[in-house]
Amino acid sequence: MKKLLSCLLLTLITGAAVAASPAPIAAERGMVVTAQQYATRIGVDVLKQGGNAIDAAVAVGYALAVVYPAAGNLGGGGFMTVMFADGRRAFIDFREKAPLAATANMFLDAQGNVVPDLSTRGHLAVAVPGTVAGLEYIRAKYGTRPLRTLIDPAIRLAERGFVLAQGDAEMLWEGSADFRKDAASAAIFLHAGKPWQPGDTLKQPDLARTLKLIRARGAPGFYQGETAAKLVAASRAGGGILSQADLDAYDVREMPPLECDYRGFRIVSAPPPSSGGVVICEILNVLEGYPLPDYGWGSARAIHVQIEAMRQAYIDRNQLLGDQRFVKNPVDQMLDKAYGARIRAGIDPQRAGISTKLVPGAGFNEGSHTTHYSIADSFGNAVAVTYTLNDWFGARVTAGGTGVLLNNEMDDFTAKVGVPNLYGLVQGENNRIEPGKRPLSSMAPTIVVKDRKPWMILGTPGGSRIITAVTLTLLNVIDYGMDLQEAVDAPRIHQQWLPEETYVEARALSADTRAILESMGHRLTVPQPENHVAAILIGAPALNAKPVGGNRFYGAIDPRRNTGLAAGY
Ligand code: DON
Question: Does residue 450 lie within any of the structural domains?
């Protein structure tokens, strides 16, 4: 009886009694969460051998390019948010750039209409890749291990192959129809013209060779010489505009991350050319004024204010933001707590807003495939990386002889004002195509700081839905006291200004709550494809919980997709 009582007490303290999900994965010295199990294991091995979180991030970045070709990549780009043990933080932008020959109207026909698929499939959709430059930049500046040690596991997986699990095969099937149209892709991602099956071994000898050229020369092994020539030749043959001059001009940018405070926590996330951090912070600033825990998770009141905060933040995103080298972003105004309060004042507690009646920057004072991984090491460093080909398998074309799948990041630009892109985003002039410009992103590799130390590390793919998935996961942990796995698992909603409808995942709303929201004027619809959140919490599995044994690190991978692993040591 005594034992039962103390057990009950313990579960009450840790919160386990209310858990709706399995417990997060716990470990004592470090944690890696990625979208593919082999990549996670490679990252853990680097940490075990004394490498830091940056070393592990580089090794995982190269590994995912092999074992997670839908989004892991050499032919795409991304962002990294880092917090170092001494409290410093950095943001590394290795986003793709528009080729020098790109023009504002390159995806329009003679009548000025967007040509279907031109910005999403084939070589014209390809922006200048940044991943290899980015991984090499962070390795040289912040890593402690030689390139050979970090890239060799990826080379081995490409050369000897890896056995496809069910989820790996299912990912490949998403691209099958398009792979058939591109001989270089079909040669790798189809097996004698047929989809690969679970249990098959996928070998990628061309990709192994490309990785070896990087191992020999660093980033120039990709941007110059044999690989570069093949990338340019493939583009030319496929009607693209990528040139050697584009590869020569690619540059990585390092800048301070975008930061804001939410209920005493410091949110450290992605600045432009991502909208991720700005929009998360704008939404949080609005929500900070509401007693969300009192409203209760999933209550009509809470969902209503979340939808309205998202609605205004996305019109601001879509109309006001773009690459800061080309346009001025009103970030300070968007992050102003007073602006958050003015948006709040405009939210009718009883009625849904109407997207088409909103204006961007309302109340300013006058005057959319991707993968995310999170890593924490025993030294106190934390790394969040989101990188992407844009759509799963990008433009669905491979540069012949390189094994490199190419991105379709050009679709993140505004092809035409008022016309939705792949993620339904209706964007403005600030994000129009210009040579050398980076397309506006939603990627949001995020670190939350508590007591001056990294506390939570998270991010996700999902295009425009990245921002809301990260925000809701933060709310679940900070406002609703969920443990990390529950916070990741909990059903989500998403509103992005246009369309008017709010996307609702299955079981996110009870029938009663749905009826209340609809009576307030909300239009609700079925969800878009899922996110895939990869998150770490440091110290305990939930905000006010105790550590489980001697474990400091807690990891959770989103169960919405059938791949991925959280593991530590
Ligand atoms: O940068 C962006 O916002 C998009 N290219 C991200 C794409 C993405 O997340 C695809 N994921 N499923």
Answer: no
> Max Cα separation, the chain?
81
Give how far the C-alpha of residue 184 lies from the chain's centroid of Cα atoms, to the nearest Å: 27
**pTM of the full predicted structure?**
0.95
Ligand 1 centroid from CA 532, angstroms: 11
Q: What is the SS3 assignment for 271?
A: coil
Closest ligand 1 atom to the C-alpha of 460?
A: 9
Other CB atoms within a 10 A radius of the CB of residue 146 amount to 12
Q: CB under 6 Å to ligand 1: residues?
A: 368-370, 388, 390, 409, 412, 441-443, 461-463, 466
Angle, in degrees to the nearest 10, between helices 276-287 and 465-478: 40
370, 371, 446, 513: which is the annotated catalytic residue?
A: 370
Q: Could you tell me which residues are beta bridge partners of residue 458?
A: 446, 535
Pocket perturbation via mutation, ligand 1, pick of 68, 93, 423, 440 by most ligand atoms within 8 A of CB? 423
C-alpha distances in angstroms, 126 versus 172, 185, 369, 374, 409?
20, 15, 14, 27, 6
179 part of a folded domain: yes
Is 194 inside any structural domain? yes
Domain containing residue 147:
26-70+108-252+394-429
For residue 64, give the 3-state DSSP assignment: helix
* Secondary structure element (H or E) that encloses residue 203, with its range: none
pLDDT at 362: 77
In angstroms, the CA 408 to CA 255 distance is 25
Q: Which of 400, 530, 404, 551 is nearest to 468 (CA)?
A: 530
Q: In this predicted model, what pLDDT tens digit does every residue of 91-104 receive, in sequence order?
A: 999 999 999 999 99
What percentage of the chain reaches a pLDDT higher than 70?
96
How far is the centre of ligand 1, averaged over its atoms, from the C-alpha of 391 (Å)? 7
* pLDDT 10s digits, 142-164: 999 999 999 999 999 999 999 99
pLDDT tens per residue across span 5-21:
444 344 343 444 456 89
| Residues recorded for the chain | 569
Question: What is the count of structural domains for the chain?
Answer: 1
Cα(422) to centroid(ligand 1), Å: 9
Is residue 185 pLDDT above 70, yes or no?
Answer: yes
CA distances for 426 relative to 201, 314, 320, 395, 434, angstroms: 41, 10, 12, 21, 18
Question: Contact 150/55 with Cβ under 8 angstroms?
Answer: yes
Mean pLDDT of 31-42: 98
**How much is the pLDDT for 368?**
43
**CA–CA gap between residue 214 and residue 219 (Å, rounded):** 6
- Tell me what pLDDT residue 11 has: 39
Q: Are 36 and 72 in contact (CB under 8 A)?
A: yes
C-alpha neighbours within 13 Å on the C-beta side of residue 364: 16
92 in a domain, yes or no? no
Contact in structure between 533 and 558 (CB atoms under 8 Å):
yes
CA 369 to ligand 1 center in whole angstroms: 5
In angstroms, the CA 54 to CA 133 distance is 15
Please say if 446 is a catalytic residue: no
Question: Nearest CA to 388 among 415, 406, 413, 414?
Answer: 406
